[in-house]
Give the backbone structure.
Amino acid sequence: MKEKKASFSGKIGFIMAAAGSAVGVGNLWRFPYLAAKYGGGIFILVYILLAVTFGFSLMIMEIAIGRKTKSSCMSAYKKLNQKFAFLGPLSALVPILILPFYCVIGGWVLKYLFEYILGHGVALTNDAYFTNLITVQNGSLLENPVLWFSIFIIITAIIVMFGVQKGVESVSKVMMPVLIVISVVIAIYSLTIPGAIDGVKYYLIPDFSKFSISTILGACGQMFFSMSLAMGIMITYGSYVNDEDDLEKSVSQIELIDTGVALLAGLMIIPPFVAFNGGNVAGIEAGPGLMFEVLPKVFDFMPFGGIVGLLFFTLVFFATITSSISLLETCQDIIADQFKISRKLAIAIIFIFSCALGTLCCLGYGPLDFIKFFGFAALDFFDVLTNSILMPIVALISCIFVGHVLGLDAISEEVEKNGHKFGRKKLVYIMIKYIAPILLAGILIVELLKNLGIFVL
Ligand code: PHE
């Protein structure tokens, strides 16, 4: 049973849905940490420069492929060139493997949000709280991460069940503006904390001594993840975009929101962290440690910390749920496209698969910690496999395919449809043909060496 291809109701719906996908935990916890590590302003500068060149080019390429082929990534590449059909299943694997563990992280966020709603923010400042949660130390149901993961994935599935316009789009249209307002409010409030100014300086003033090739590769990897590239999402969303819409303008606006929220996240987190930490930035950690262990303490130290914590975790929840709906929407598009089944059945299949893999990830630090994949706990393994290996490979091959086999004119024809001018056409051509493949090969090599333990950046 093949249903009629869904579409967004208009430009705003598309921009909000795509920005909803792009803005996620990457903006909120990874960006501030990387900026602190790689020299503040200099990292920000490099990031913005890469976002408007490299990121812009990859995003417009994927969206144009989606709109041109009106298909999921699974058959889009096949339609463009039989020899590159293998890129379909390769890119389809990425969202299918990310969705389960992303919902596990979403579950942790939901649990923290729940505690702040109950006014229990102080309990979260306990050093062992997070470790106890993820290792399932407490027998009570409310302390079990599988419960929170299940609620999170069920909310995601219900939204996606409603369809592209009534589900994905309408939720994003409400959550994204609220998310932006909350970001601005917390960022402004953070700046008023005594001692915050040292953190602002640390964040914004470039420290050139920390600039190296790692700054560029770090910024590159971050941008790639943050803009939801190379995971089939932008191809699926592109296939829902109306032919009349101006793709170039939309991509610029999506980027503006994504980068804007990342910059605000740095202002929300670094100044109060520095004030809390006696004027220095040492100890601002990567990954979950920052969000789930350090931030509750920082909030507790701030006046009205319970409210800031509540607002912050509402913001993180909105950011993660709009990203997870983009993942589930893409997965269902892939499965429905491949097996020619209905949307509902495709959602059910992905839901069951994700529940199984997600539960494994949930319990992989606790009761199931004897199950290791190449020495990694389940969640870490799927994270490394998708982000560090599959995504750069998919992006690299697709740039080579579009730049050197298909030809970029296919992309510009799509962008220029209905008389739109493709202002940054030359830039996109140079990026996709020459610069992106070099940067992507660099990311891939560094990530491989890092994960094999040969080299640490
Ligand atoms: N772009 C999201 C972020 O910045 C990450 C993401 C991953 C989104 C997977 C969707 C799917 O956090």
About this structure: Residues 305-339 form the longest helix (35 residues).
